[in-house]
Amino acid sequence: MLLSTYLSASWEFAFLFSLLTVGFRSNCASSAESIPTPTPWPDQFNALLFTNHSLTGKLQLQMNDLWYDWPNRRTMNRVQYQLGDYLHDVEWNNGTSYYFTSGPTGTCTTRLFEVGVLPPEWLDGATYLGRTSADGFECHVYTKVDFIIYYEEVGTGRPVWWNFTDGTISYLTYFLFSYFASPLPLSPFMETIVLLH
Question: What's this model's pTM, rounded to 2 decimal places?
Fold first, then answer.
């Protein structure tokens, strides 16, 4: 009788414990599922960015016309500093970047960076900071490697702000999810080829 009472009590405990465990696991799963993940970038896009360097001490504003081309492992920034000339920044996946200006006083320099072109899923593993309103856009906010705080529009996945830890803030004013890969007669990549010849 004592053994049957013990087994009955043990069975009841095991049953209740399994119910609690299943309930806890499903609760955890729904919590984990409710944390959004960053939207990967499209393979190609064009974006216009207004960038403010005031917090870095540079006191410079700039407009960036960014062309991202992951299939060809390249990006190009056409940068115009406040009241300045255009600076072209062509970046390749091997870490090589070319900076040049055109015209009679044109310049050209190269630099080597450890990081090449960011892949579309570069935000994988980012820490989710929550949801906020930024310049009228409802955004998910992420941070990655103490390098960037990334604001992404909730409904579309479009980037809205890039807030870098050095104080640089880039506001995206235009984002086209793709562009025609070939030919690119109006693309800065074609312009780059023309300017280099």
Answer: 0.72
